């Protein structure tokens, strides 16, 4: 009888809500980043990258200083977050 190679069961990750925050190096020190899926986005936020609203149901990124208490959290469009190093504050292009 042939042997079946089966993957051992892993702990299941939650399918809804925000993913675990990760730590990245920012220009002002370490920054915690959490990606929010569209199903977890329930409120309207203002993106600091483009100064436009992030509508409910839109996947986006939340970032805050690692040494902070979370009061400095900012919600970013994913594209604005990815382009933050190429864009100067207050510049549209």
TrEMBL record:
Region Disordered, residue ranges? 1-46
Q: The organism sits in which domain of life? A: Bacteria
Protein name from the UniProt record: ATP/GTP-binding protein
